Write the structure tokens for this entry.
Amino acid sequence: MRLLIIADKLTGGAGNVAQQLASCFSREKENTVFLLIETNVQPKYDLSNVHIINRKIDARKLKNPIKTIRRYYKKLSWLRKSINACKADIIISFLNTISPDVLISQLFTKTPIIVSERSNPYQEWIKYNWKNRIKWTLSYLRANMIVYQFHCFESFFKYTYKKGKTCVIPNMIYYPKDDITKRAIINNDNLRFAAISTLYSVKRINMMIDIFANVWSKHPTIVLNIYGDGPDREKLEQQVCKLGLQNSIIFHGHVTDTTKVLCNNDVLLMTSEREGFPNVILEAMNVGAPTVMFKCHDGLSEIITDGVNGFLIEPDNTNEFTEKLQSLVVNPNIIKELSKNALSSKAQYSREQVMHLWENCIKFTIRSNSR
């Protein structure tokens, strides 16, 4: 099988899942895998058997509408040429910021296309203007299958042209069991909270810092380790300086081995305004680190059972978030119980289980397209 996978970058949730699929499928000798992506950083996974096509897209905003249309036409032409050159048996496209262009470039072609939605489609629809809504809706007519990460998202196309052509596939825990570093023992007097995120506004790390500061004021031995980089880093560092917490909130920059990082922390924190399917939750689950996060959509309940393997806080309820963290600091045995349950929850996200779902989805799509 010749498989073409299209994503935006090697970082972020979509980039990670695209790499995982490319790596897994390329291990089979009968498969030829192409990855059309912006290779801005070193791959996180083994892509030695993958044919990487580097996509360099000019993202500058142009005021001249004629130039904008001309550039968009060139982009579609390049996409069509690059995709057709692969002679793929099937295409998997990630992200609704890319997929419409991929689908439009493949109008009047016969190669089956699977669109993998990586975010909450209801939130995306609200965010879009009328032009993007039309583009999104009409372009998806070309898709042969739409993959969602949560069952609660599947109803988005329930009464539209894609009825019966959707399926749910969660993200996978990719790390082999043998690669997991032994987890550091919880120190009751010095609990370590972690944030692993790109540092930009939608992740609301500033809110996390304020919540942590409130807990720290009563328990000054706790630590918040922030892993990741982004446009808000300088502003966040200034916020920490104003609070006088430079020794308790530490910025580590970009990391590639998140498993090792999570093994050296006790609890993962997330304060995002919106999320799709955060890979980092599964990575934390894989080493027994529970997650405390805002419930920014109902699908998160399919990963985290509140009070069992983590905590889901009602959106924007910072008081409840603060209280949960304080309860963990006062009684670290709760973390140990959550950790045990997190480890027992991870089987459904194993590489074997999720790859089996992807293989079935691909076979079904190819078979349906040949009828």
In short: Confidence is low (pLDDT under 50) at residues 176-181. The chain is about 40% helix and 15% strand. Residues 76 and 101 are 7 Å apart (CA to CA). The chain has two domains: 2-172+350-369, 177-348.
